[in-house]
Design brief:
The protein has about 170 residues and is an all-alpha fold. Helix content is about 60%, strand content about 0%.
Amino acid sequence: VIFLSATYSFWSPYLENVIRKNEGSMAAGGITSSREEHWDTRLSEFKSSPCIGIGFASVSIQSRDGATFDQNSGQVETGSSWLSVLSMTGIFGFSAFMGLFVRAFGQLKKVGRNDLCHASYLSALLIFWCFHMMAEGYIFGAGGFLFFNVWLLLGCIDALGRNKSLMVAGNNII
């Protein structure tokens, strides 16, 4: 805290865009006002096809309020990973997707019996990403940094849960 306070004048100019965005969000009605349009669009997509969704990696381009698709770049802003899975794949796909996370937590519980330290660390990371995915829609954004981190974490948890010969000794997995 002392270091950050002492060096604030050096790195504070880089915060101007973030501060401006937060002020704009507050003026527009709240800190989540930029996301609410995306969330409402995802919910209306889900309501249009609740069982099977609107299609994998698809978004409605009809909405003007929640501008979710840039035709020039092809970039999609979904606003929430959980809502994008729900709207794109429906209840059936969302149930399967939730199964991945439920299984991961079950495997972490099993790993925790032998190695509580690593299981706790991986559990904390998984919980963090579960909460973070409420506000950022990257779960189907292949090639993205956040996408990579979440799926890599799920893969590591699965590998540790399945492979009984992986033993954690000190800081090395052998």
